[in-house]
Design goal:
By secondary structure, the protein is of the alpha/beta class. The protein is built from 26 helices and 37 strands.
């Protein structure tokens, strides 16, 4: 349609939220159920993308220097490009399909074979019509073996995936009920899956499964490497015996009796392990080599999540999907938990089962009984319509929608029980999870979103048009809350978010935040989550660099986005100038791509430290430029924090980092900003007592009443984040517009204040701890600290309430 230049394409993109490297990205505008990629063309163009495949005409006036190709079907174009790319490489490829276990077999094969091959494989479970092309695009001339999985949901799909993957070795894990709805029956689904192996030289599968055995054609049987207990199987199982931690598999293969030990005992893991053994035998590995390597297999992290809930409950959150097979797994996990005798399941409609509804829910009811479930709460029109199937469950409640459930939530009385959340994605059980996990407390922090948006605009006015803005939302967004703050910032088009630890970023992703997120303190234990939730770690040491680079290579990912921190004078984290040559060499050999290089200013808010700030900036720019010259791509540079945005505008560079200023605090004390207080911490008066002169108040009798006084006990203490340094008259709270001093020591959950002389004060009245009427800066001065500590110190047991006017 339009062509202006020959750009090098390194990245294929189908989701605008996943944009990492605009200048080398080709965006495929795909048709969607709610929105198509066409709606995001303008946004992507503004973010630097210049190469597009579209299925609708585009007004080229708005894309003056873009390459735009118009096609009839952009998904087919994506698949054809991936198939062509695959045809350029003559390496063996293993293709895996089945109803369950595809990802596990793929990952285990990688663990077993990585010593001998440079392997390219599907990241995570990229096995769909979109995921497979994106997976194959990773293949390059350094790879020696490919391992890809393929999933289908309706007839006709596997033919397209076969043309892309073109596997030499095929592995069929099993046939179950997932995505049955798109097929006439399980047999037709099995035949569709076997299309993946149309041109394979060998097919590995379990022919004890009669459906699989029957679906195999004459051509399939000629290249069959089957396993099972049947006497004709090439890998004939004679005995399987498990103890506490291992399983012994005795089998007959190639005229030999052999025994191999597998480090798992559950049925699914045993079957998946046997599939892997057959692949290794096909690749001519010796029994001794297989025996040794099987012991390195490790469990693949599943999505089940166990955590504490309200009223001494335990919450098992498996609200990613709802089908019979995964329900069985979740119930098994629940049965293993011994904290509570009572077991409750909150279950949504089960979609795409391929069964008649009455038969499906009868089976579900039997399963719940078998797994000793005491209580069922069904959510959805279909499960509610089949209420009669669950008569044998001790307690049942049914709601046609999640909203109706939430309206009745407080009547359900959850206490001392294990609660399994099992819901199809469209039911959005995340909100139910939050209800069950929420802690109720009389102290609340109110967040004025209008004020925060106004503060953001105040700082944006100071920025050059080309300068990007990274918002710091670490430490629970400076105490203000994670998702709600990030959602506001996303709406107002900030460019980046930054968090301290991966779990903060995970919560944002789970809540629907799709902005790029930088993780400042990535730990080894969080590496897996960084990949799963598309989080970008800061690399600040060679130790961390080597660990993360090794992890990326193990995960078969390349050009993963990271941020490099340089040490220029803060002396906290980062690479110093003398390590620059080694750092550059390590970057060149790594599996990641630099998104930004940055450093921290130690004292940008202080006039007397301006010379040091300029010295830091000079060191940073010199080092960043040296890194830039060594690489063949561009990255962003940033060093300016909130105070520097005001006091050092020359340091805006490519991006600035805005933190405490968002919350209405001018850390530079410039008095040039029209900032508004965002957070108001409030509590209530639990009791009022009138005490006589000389009576003591609180622990250790440190508070002494002078004259007849009215003393109010407020529902906030040091466990809520109200510092003990504010005790004994140092701190004050606002009651009816007047300051009331703290009397006595701060308790864990309570604080006493002297309200003598303040009229019309009653038990239950509101007390302002800090807010617009009592700035947090003032409270920080009383506590002899800084506003950061006061804000971030507010406990997460304190409920956050967000409002807009």
């Amino acid at each position: 349609m339009q062509k202006t230049n020959n750009d090098t394409i390194e990245h294929l993109l189908t989701d605008s939220r996943r944009l990492l490297f605009p200048s080398t990205t080709l965006f495929f505008s795909l048709k969607g159920r709610r929105k198509s990629g066409h709606h995001f063309l303008d946004e992507l163009y503004q973010r630097g993308v210049r190469n597009f495949i579209v299925f609708n005409q585009v007004d080229t006036i708005n894309f003056s220097d873009a390459n735009i190709v118009l096609v009839k079907n952009s998904l087919q174009a994506l698949q054809q490009l991936a198939a062509f790319h695959r045809s350029q490489f003559d390496i063996p490829v293993i293709g895996i399909t089945g109803s369950n276990g595809k990802t596990i077999v793929k990952e285990w094969l990688n663990q077993l074979l990585e010593d001998d091959f440079n392997i390219v494989r599907s990241p995570r479970s990229y096995n769909s019509q979109i995921g497979v092309p994106l997976s194959l695009w990773q293949m390059n001339d350094t790879h020696e073996l490919g391992i890809f999985e393929a999933g289908i949901s309706e007839p006709g799909e596997m033919k397209r995936l076969q043309q892309i993957i073109h596997p030499a070795i095929g592995v069929l894990t099993n046939i179950g009920e997932a995505h049955n709805e798109g097929f006439e029956n399980i047999a037709s689904k099995t035949k569709e899956k076997l299309i993946l192996f149309k041109k394979s030289s060998v097919i590995i599968c379990n022919t004890d499964d009669k459906i699989i055995s029957k679906a195999l054609t004459k051509a399939d049987k000629q290249k069959l490497f089957d396993w099972g207990k049947n006497t004709s199987a090439k890998f004939r199982i004679k005995k399987i015996q498990s103890d506490l931690n291992n399983t012994s598999v005795q089998f007959y293969y190639n005229q030999q009796n052999q025994t191999l030990n597998i480090p798992f005992t559950d049925k699914a893991s045993i079957e998946n392990s046997i599939s892997c053994i057959c692949v290794m035998l096909q690749l001519n590995y010796s029994f001794e080599s297989i025996r040794l390597r099987l012991q390195r297999l490790s469990h693949i992290t599943m999505r089940l999540e166990l955590k504490s809930g309200i009223n001494n409950c335990s919450i098992i959150n498996d609200s990613y999907s709802a089908d019979i097979n995964s329900l069985k797994i979740a119930l098994d996990f629940m049965l293993q938990q011994q904290q509570h005798k009572k077991r409750t399941v909150i279950l949504s409609d089960i979609l795409q089962s391929g069964k008649k509804e009455n038969e499906l829910y009868k089976e579900v009811a039997q399963l719940l009984q078998q797994k000793k479930v005491n209580r069922l709460i069904g959510i959805g029109e279909k499960i509610s319509a089949n209420e009669i199937a669950f008569r044998q469950i001790g307690e049942t409640d049914f709601y046609s929608s999640p909203d109706l459930f939430k309206k009745n939530f407080h009547q359900l009385h959850f206490r001392d029980e294990s609660i399994l959340l099992k819901g199809a994605r469209i039911f959005e059980f995340e909100s139910i999870d939050r209800l069950l996990s929420e802690q109720v407390h009389q102290t609340v922090m109110e967040i004025d979103l209008n004020a925060m948006a106004s503060n953001l605009r105040e700082y944006q006015k100071l920025l050059n048009p080309s300068t990007k803005l990274m918002a710091m939302v670490k430490a629970f967004s400076y105490g203000g809350g994670s998702f709600e703050i990030a959602n506001l910032l996303q709406f107002h088009k900030v460019d980046y978010l930054a968090v301290a630890y991966a779990d903060e970023g995970i919560e944002l992703r789970k809540s629907g935040i799709n902005l790029p997120i930088m993780v400042m303190n990535a730990e080894v234990s969080s590496f897996d989550a960084l990949l799963q939730y598309h989080l970008e770690p800061v690399i600040y040491s060679f130790h961390l660099l080597q660990l993360f680079d090794g992890f990326l290579k193990k995960e078969a990912l390349q050009q993963f986005p990271v941020h490099i921190e340089l040490e220029t004078g803060m002396n906290r984290l980062g690479f110093p100038a003398n390590e620059l040559p080694s750092l550059i060499e390590a970057i060149r050999k790594s599996s990641f791509k630099i998104q930004t290089v940055f450093s921290h200013l130690a004292a940008s808010e202080e006039l007397q430290q301006d010379a040091f700030t300029k010295q830091q900036a000079s060191l940073f720019l010199k080092a960043a430029d040296e890194i830039q010259l060594s690489l063949n791509y561009y990255f962003l540079k940033h060093i300016a924090n909130t105070a520097a945005i005001i006091r050092h505008p020359e340091l805006q560079l490519d991006m600035v980092r805005l933190g405490i200023g968002l919350y209405g605090i001018d850390s530079s004390e410039s008095h040039k900003m029209n900032l508004q207080e965002v957070s108001t911490l409030k509590s209530t008066i639990a009791q009022i007592k009138v005490l006589n002169d000389g009576i003591t108040v609180g622990y250790n009798r440190k508070g002494v009443v002078r004259g007849k006084s009215a003393i109010a006990t407020v529902c906030i203490g040091y466990a809520d984040g109200y510092s003990r340094s504010l005790g004994n008259g140092m701190g004050k709270m606002m009651v009816n517009g007047r300051l009331a001093p703290v009397i006595g020591s701060i308790c864990m959950d309570m604080t006493m204040i002297d309200i003598t002389g303040i009229p019309d004060v009653h038990e239950g009245d509101e007390v302002v701890v800090f807010g617009k009427s009592l700035p947090v800066q003032q409270v920080a001065k009383w506590a002899q600290t800084i506003p950061y500590e006061i804000l971030t110190g507010v406990s997460q047991r304190v409920k956050r309430v967000y409002f807009e006017e």
